[in-house]
Amino acid sequence: MNFNSHADVVVAVAVDLVNALTDGARRGCPYVVPAGEERRAAVREALRGREVTDTEADELAEVAAELRTVFTSVAAGDVDAAAERVNRMLRDYAARPRLARHDGEPWHLHFHGEDGTLAQDWAASCATGLAVVIGGGQHNRLGVCTAPVCDRVYVDVSRNGTRRFCSTACQNRVKAAAFRARAVR
Ligand SMILES: [Zn+2]
User: Where does the Zinc finger CGNR domain lie (predicted)?
Assistant: First the structure.
């Protein structure tokens, strides 16, 4: 599965931001967003090594909450709501394509303007990535983990598009539970 190389990256970042910065459940346990350095480290990982301040992490947490609703709307079968949310984010975060060349890289496409904050830029980029997915008829590639006690999100980049879990950990939990259920019968 390859939507467009940069779109693929920002969709993966959207998934990681949602999973790092929204409360809920993860792999069978409650998940509470950590604070301070631990939260900054989680964001740094989601942003592929980019350092952030606590204020930027606060702003990104708001962005993550908006991004989560795109995944939950798709999972609930409400693609219209997901599309409307993406459109609102594209507008609010001033998403606009622009070719940039910096740090010795060749010309490449940025999905945000030149004067946004770090959180606005990532919000514009993640929203554009999700717009590419939904606009390409691939909304069913966006999902929320179907394992019990887990609501982490994922993007399904498998060839056949049958992914249902956030991780192999959750897949194995569900498999083990099914095995136990058969064993007690
Ligand atoms: Zn899961």
Answer: 141-182
